[in-house]
Amino acid sequence: MDQVKQQIIALLKENIRNIPDFPQPGIQFKDITPLLQNPDTLELTSRVLARPFRKKNIDYVVGLESRGFLFGTNLAQDLHAGFIPIRKPGKLPAETLSATYALEYGNDTVEIHKDAFSEGARVLVHDDLIATGGSAAAATELVEELGGKVVGYSFIIALETLRGTDLLAPGVPVKVLLSL
Fold first, then answer.
1. Catalytic site residue 104?
2. Contact 113, 86 (CB under 8 A)
3. Is 144 designated active site?
4. In the predicted model, what is the mean pLDDT of residues 4-12?
5. Choosing from 67, 87, 111, 141, which is the catalytic residue?
6. Catalytic residue among 14, 104, 144, 145, which?
7. Tell me, what DSSP letter sits at residue 70?
8. Were both Cys, which of 35, 76, 87, 88 would link to 15 (CB 3.0–4.6 Å)?
9. Strand partners, 29
């Protein structure tokens, strides 16, 4: 790994806080709030997330609620793409599709508007963190159900021991800034 990349990774790691036992005992929550508070790491993270997808003709970035919205909209702007939120049930005002998935501490459901994009759209799935991979896999299911094609996954953090990337679409590029 080159020196510049090592410096970037070190800077990002310094700005991620570990919160033990949140949202429940045994979970080690990775808090990106310090990364967001620092204008240099905020800008750097946005630039580094977009770099691998600049020439991939992305039509839409799908951001997962809620922390996937924080960089997902910047990522969409940087890639000259639209942004589509995937939200918890009951948060989207128009007709939706839903998918349920397993978390490390239970189950959850996400929804997307049925008219989010037209068939054949090239979609990048983004979230701040991938743990078990359930929410990203559910997002993939929703994109495919609408006739879109997931052409990439983007995460700031991957919790490697949980092997969440194993649930993602085979052969689709997965870009992770930090593996913890």
1. yes
2. no
3. no
4. 87
5. 67
6. 104
7. H
8. 35
9. 19
